[in-house]
Structure formats: structure tokens, C-alpha cells
Specification:
With about 400 residues, the protein is α/β, with parallel strands linked by helices. The protein folds into two domains: about 130 residues, Alpha-Beta Complex (Aspartate Aminotransferase, domain 1), CATH 3.90.1150.10; about 250 residues, 3-Layer(aba) Sandwich (Aspartate Aminotransferase, domain 2). The chain is built from 13 helices and 13 strands. Strand 12 and strand 13 form a beta hairpin. Pathway: Cofactor biosynthesis; NAD(+) biosynthesis; quinolinate from L-kynurenine: step 2/3; Amino-acid degradation; L-kynurenine degradation; L-alanine and anthranilate from L-kynurenine: step 1/1. Homodimer. Catalyzes the cleavage of L-kynurenine (L-Kyn) and L-3-hydroxykynurenine (L-3OHKyn) into anthranilic acid (AA) and 3-hydroxyanthranilic acid (3-OHAA), respectively. Its cofactor is pyridoxal 5'-phosphate.
């Protein structure tokens, strides 16, 4: 196995790591797929915003730039990460709210159909929303049973969809296993059944490239605080294919998504284009940091980011086999990089205790049942040496506990 120091020297993206706050510290951060490190430039941006835009321009800022920010950042995100043309992506609301709006809009666009298809190992919010909407509307959830070390395959989906399917909800990268779904093929199967596809991009946006337009995806929702480094609670984004803008009616009709928001007329008419999928006042402060990370990803190139991600996860798996497997640790993520996103989950009955001990010594992974320690390796802020030190710490804690 190649030495970590050599891998870091050979990594063309390694000079970018120094742009992140805390990257120079000895802390090992394996949770970049839950909350990304902030960029140094973001602190400067926030300070300028408070002094110059918020403090200097006050409410005039809405007319001068803020009102357009959800669409402008959405277009940047679409260009840099999503493989989508302009005018189809907008930033605003939380992931949960956007998923709810788009699930409701999708099933309403398929009247007479009674089923939402989703897998039992999808992220809890996705599952809870699907079940709640089914309860609200008298629909049925058709559950796909999946291996928790894998995810939704074309074969599983083909067996689940049918003439009653209104909507299919799939995570592009599974939150537990990192299974990388074949979104293009899953979308084709969904469309053959006459249904709409909603893709959750929370664990892929900014780490795994997508081609939403080319894959003919209908709707996609993703968060911005993982690989997009938007900060705690930063707003989510939604992509809606242009061909569906006039077909879908979102259920939360707020003033900002109206055709003439400042007219404040007696009745609602949706805005043209992607803006109709907004509801409330855009969270401007929460959007600021996203811009810095998108600029960095564009500088690096999303394909180079993906190559680094593959390199980090392959290194982590090789180290697990060498250092941790003798203690009974097993890899609970796909071993093929073509089937794996940007993190690796390793299982052992003591991983809950190991995770707690690691946090106390500034090694920060997260824990996912059953018995899973998840290594979230954010490509631009994680080094190969960091992976080595983290895996060594896992071994030390297992040696102590076993």
C-alpha cells in the first residue's frame, strides 16, 4: 500500500486543504459528510456582509442583490456540481421542507396513481415524509427492502414500480452504506412506469458528479452543509427539470414564490420558472458560505474532486483490511468505487463505544446503527495522512476495549 505521505505529495488538490479553518490542527475529522469545515474566505465574506451589505445598504440590499441570490447560487451549483442548465435550481428552505413540497407536488401531478416507492434504508426524513404524505392523501408506500451495506439496484426498483406508482424517491448516495445508485437507469425505469423520480443528493452534491439533465431526472433535493460547506443549518436546494415547471404545483404558497411578490395581491399566482418553488423569505446569511465552496469546487473541478474522493475511500478500505480486519472489523460499504460515494462505513459490535472514545481524543467520525463507524472523507479538506492517523486511533481504541 502506498505511503500516505507520498499520496499527499502526489495529490494535486492537497494545496487547497490549507484554505479550510482548522486543517492545520492535529484533529482528525471524519464527519465532513455531515458538516463540512468552513473555508477561511467565509469568515471574511460574513464580516463584509455585516459591515457593507446588511449594515451599509440595509433593506436596499433586497433590490440590489439579495432577491436574486437563490437563483444565482442555484445556477452556479447546477453548473459546477449538478450537470444541469441554468434556470432549474434554486436555494431556499430546509431539506425537509423542500422534500415535502416536491413529494406533494409530484404525487399531485400523477392523479389516479396511489403509490410512493422508497427503500427502507433511505434517510429517515425521506421515509418519514413519504409515509406522512401517504397518510395525508390516502396513498400507499411501497417499500423496497435493501441490504444495509448496499442500496437500491435497477432490479429491485423494476420489481417495485408499476401502473400505480406516482413517485419514486431514491438517494443518489445512501447515507449509511455510501451505495452509489445508478440514477440514470433508475430514472429510466421510473419513467417507463409513468412515474416521477425525486433524487436526494444530500450525500453526493459537491463530492460525486451528477448529470441531472442528461439522466432525465425530474426533481432533485440536496443540502448544502455537507460537501458544500454552507455551515450548520444552511439552506437546501431544489432542482426541477424545466419541462415540469408548469406541470408541478408546489403546496406551500408563500409570498416570495408569487408572480409579483411585492404587489401582495388578493390571490396567488406562481412566479415563472424555478422561482415558483420558493415559499418564504430567502435565508440570505445562510447562503453566503455556499458561494465560497462552489468557487473552490469549480477551481478544482468536480471530476478531480471525485477522483480524490475515490482515492481517499480506497485508502481507508485498504487500511481497514490491513489494520482493523484482524480485530473483526468488516467493511459495510461497496468495495467497488463505481458503486460507492464519498464515505466508508466499517462495522464492529463495539463501534458505538469506539466512536465516543475517539471524540474525546479529537478524532471525529460518526456512528450509525447497526454497529457502524462512518468515515466521511470530504475530498478537499481531508488528507491521506489524516486517514492514516484516524484508522490508527480506531485500532488503539478497539485494542483497549476488546
Amino acid at each position: 500500500m502506498t505511503d500516505a505521505a507520498q499520496l499527499d505529495r502526489d495529490d494535486p488538490l492537497s494545496p487547497l486543504r490549507g484554505r479550510f479553518v482548522g486543517a492545520e490542527s492535529p484533529l482528525v475529522y471524519f464527519d465532513g459528510n455531515s458538516l463540512g469545515r468552513p473555508l477561511r474566505a467565509t469568515g471574511e465574506r460574513l464580516a463584509r456582509f455585516v459591515d457593507e451589505e446588511w449594515g451599509g445598504r440595509l433593506i436596499r440590499g433586497w433590490d440590489e442583490s439579495w432577491m436574486a441570490l437563490p437563483e444565482r447560487i442555484g445556477d452556479d451549483l447546477a453548473r459546477v456540481c449538478l450537470g444541469a442548465a441554468a434556470g432549474q435550481t434554486v436555494v431556499g428552505d430546509s431539506t425537509t421542507v423542500l422534500l415535502y413540497k416536491m413529494m406533494r407536488a409530484a404525487v399531485a401531478a400523477r392523479p389516479g396513481r396511489s403509490e410512493i416507492v422508497i427503500d427502507r434504508d433511505n434517510f429517515p426524513t425521506d421515509r418519514y415524509l413519504a409515509a406522512g404524505i401517504a397518510d395525508e392523501l390516502g396513498l400507499t408506500v411501497r417499500w423496497i427492502e435493501v441490504d444495509t451495506a448496499a442500496g437500491v439496484t435497477a432490479e429491485l426498483l423494476a420489481d417495485a414500480v408499476g401502473p400505480q406508482t406516482a413517485l419514486v424517491v431514491v438517494s443518489h448516495v445512501a447515507y449509511r452504506s455510501a451505495w452509489l445508485a445508478d440514477l440514470a437507469e433508475l430514472t429510466r425505469i421510473t419513467h417507463e412506469a409513468g412515474a416521477l423520480m425525486l433524487a436526494d443528493l444530500c450525500h453526493s452534491a459537491g463530492s460525486v458528479p451528477t448529470e441531472l439533465d442528461a439522466w432525465d431526472v425530474d426533481i432533485a433535493v440536496g443540502c448544502s452543509y455537507k460537501y458544500l460547506n454552507g455551515g450548520p443549518g444552511a439552506p437546501a436546494f431544489v432542482y426541477v427539470a424545466e419541462r415540469l415547471h408548469d406541470e408541478l404545483t408546489q403546496p406551500i404558497r408563500g409570498w416570495i414564490g408569487a408572480d409579483q411578490p411585492f404587489l401582495m395581491g388578493p390571490s396567488y399566482a406562481p412566479a415563472a420558472g424555478i422561482r415558483r418553488f420558493l415559499s418564504g423569505t430567502p435565508p440570505i446569511v445562510g447562503m453566503l458560505a455556499i458561494q465560497d465552496m462552489l468557487a473552490l469546487v469549480e477551481e478544482a473541478g468536480i471530476e478531480a474532486v471525485r477522483a480524490k474522493s475515490v482515492g481517499l475511500t480506497e485508502h481507508a478500505i485498504a487500511l481497514t483490511d490491513e489494520v482493523l480486519a484482524p480485530l473483526g472489523v468488516v467493511v459495510a460499504s461497496p468495495r467497488s468505487s463505481h458503486e460507492r460515494g464519498g464515505h466508508v462505513t466499517v462495522n464492529h459490535p463495539l463501534m458505538r463505544e469506539v466512536t465516543a472514545a475517539l471524540w474525546a481524543r479529537d478524532v471525529v467520525p460518526d456512528y450509525r446503527d447497526p454497529h457502524g463507524l462512518r468515515l466521511g472523507l470530504s475530498p478537499l479538506s481531508t488528507s491521506y495522512d489524516e486517514v492514516d492517523r484516524g484508522i490508527a486511533a480506531v485500532r488503539e481504541e478497539l485494542d483497549r476495549l476488546v
